[in-house]
Structure formats: C-alpha cells, structure tokens
Amino acid sequence: MLNNIGLPGLLLIAVVVLVLFGRGKISSLMGEVGKGITSFKKGVSEGNKELEDASNDASAEETSTENEKDKA
C-alpha cells in the first residue's frame, strides 16, 4: 500500500498536516525533534567515551599486574 505513494502524495500529506496543525505548532514540534536528536547523539558519544575509558583502564590494569609479576 505505501509503495505507491509518490511525490504528489507526500506533498498532499504535507499540506494537510500544515492546515491541521498550523505553522507554529509544526515549527515547535520540529524544534523538539531536533533537540531530541541532539541529545541522543550526545548520549551515544558519551557512552562510547565511557566504553573507551573502561577499556583503557582495564588494559592499564593488566599492564600494571604484568609489571608486578615481572618484578617478583
């Protein structure tokens, strides 16, 4: 069913949504969507950084343990 929606159909849907909700409501909604995407990207990058830090800490701990074994 959705395979047959072309450019004219999408434009018609956009016009109907604009008429129903108004420009101000759609503008504020898109602003909220943008903020959500930004915070999602920030959370993903912070999560990746935490994983890298944990990996670096684990490898540093393994190195220090190996150095202690070599000294003994």
Write up this protein.
The chain has 72 residues and is an all-alpha fold. It has a single domain, classed as Single alpha-helices involved in coiled-coils or other helix-helix interfaces, CATH 1.20.5. 89% of the residues lie in helices and 0% in strands. It has two helices and no strands. The protein starts with 6 loop residues before the first helix and ends with a helix.
List keywords for this structure.
72 residues, mainly alpha, Single alpha-helices involved in coiled-coils or other helix-helix interfaces, elongated, transport, Sec-independent protein translocase protein TatA, protease, translocation
| Gross CATH architecture | Up-down Bundle
Structural class: mainly alpha
Helix % is over 70%
Quickly count the domains.
1
Radius of gyration over all CA atoms, rounded? 26 Å
In whole angstroms, how far apart are the ends? 73 Å
Per the principal axes of the C-alpha atoms, what is the gross shape? elongated
The CATH top-level class label: Mainly Alpha
> How is the CATH topology named?
Single alpha-helices involved in coiled-coils or other helix-helix interfaces
Largest sheet: none
What is the element string, with H for helices and E for strands? Answer: HH
Query: Overall pLDDT, averaged?
Result: 84
In terms of per-residue confidence, which ranges show pLDDT below 50 for 5 or more consecutive residues?
none
Family: Belongs to the TatA/E family.
Membrane topology: Single-pass membrane protein
InterPro entries: TatA/B/E, TatA/E
Keywords: Cell membrane, Hydrolase, Membrane, Protease, Protein transport, Translocation, Transmembrane, Transmembrane helix, Transport
